[in-house]
Write a structure and sequence with these properties.
By secondary structure, this protein is mainly α. It has one domain. The protein is about 65% helix and about 0% strand. The protein contains six helices and no strands. The structure holds zinc ion (ZN). The site of zinc ion (ZN) has 7 residues, from helix 6.
């Protein structure tokens, strides 16, 4: 799962599940074969919508340094609880990690 890599707290993931439930019920039964990939995609997009809306953090308040984010994205560093909690509730950090993980930011 991506959650561990993103450093998200379990409580936050549960809240995403609840908020994302409405859109997930719209799926057709024929899509069940793709459920796992689809579900993860939906959870990510739901998570991103919620984060963008609730935690835009335009001034990057409390953000870890770019070097720290890179280490988190590459899973080279042990993420402390404070940073993990922040990254799960900070839109710019989520975007940075996403870009770092997809290799677009070097
Ligand atoms: Zn941040």
């Amino acid at each position: 799962m991506v959650w561990g890599v993103l450093g998200l707290s379990p409580a936050y993931i549960v809240s995403i599940n609840v908020r994302g439930h409405k859109s997930m019920t719209k799926r057709k039964r024929s899509e069940q074969n793709h459920d796992n990939a689809h579900l993860e995609k939906e959870l990510i997009s739901a998570f991103e919508r919620v984060t963008a809306r609730d935690h835009p953090n335009p001034n990057r308040v409390g953000c870890p340094s770019p070097a720290q984010l890179k280490q988190i994205a590459e899973a080279k560093a042990t993420i402390n609880a404070e940073i993990a909690d922040h990254v799960g509730k900070c839109w710019p950090c989520v975007q940075d990690l996403k870009q770092l993980r997809s290799g677009k930011m070097k």
